[in-house]
Amino acid sequence: EPYARQRDAGIEALARKCNVTTRSFSGHTILDLDKVLATPGFKPPISMAGIQALLKTSGPVPPALAAPRKLPSLTIEGFEVPD
Fold it and tell me: Which of 7, 23, 48, 61 lies at 20 to 30 Å from 76 by C-alpha?
């Protein structure tokens, strides 16, 4: 959504100003919405059949990533973070 992109850009700019590193990850797990929206003649689906057609024309859905075996420990300078 446009408001969310604007909000996120503002947060990232504030973080940079405060020397905080940020990382962004796509929130969509099935389709790359930017790619879908850029498709010539794209029309948003208004029914389940439209969603199914969109999935069919957008290529195969990528397989899920494997679950991590272990998460890295969280360390924040100046703070104690329990394991």
Answer: 7
Residue whose tokens read 């990232």: 12
Q: Following DSSP, what letter does each residue of 3-58 receive, concatenated? A: HHHHHHHHHHHHHHHTT-------S-SS--HHHHHTSTT-----SHHHHHHHHHHT
> Is residue 74 classed as helix, strand or coil in its secondary structure?
coil
pLDDT in tens, 43-64: 899 999 998 988 888 878 878 8
pTM: 0.44
CB atoms within 10 A of CB 10: 10
The model's pLDDT over 3-35, given as tens digits with 9 standing for 90+, comes to 888 999 999 999 999 999 898 876 666 788 888
How distant is the alpha carbon of residue 2 from its chain centre? 14
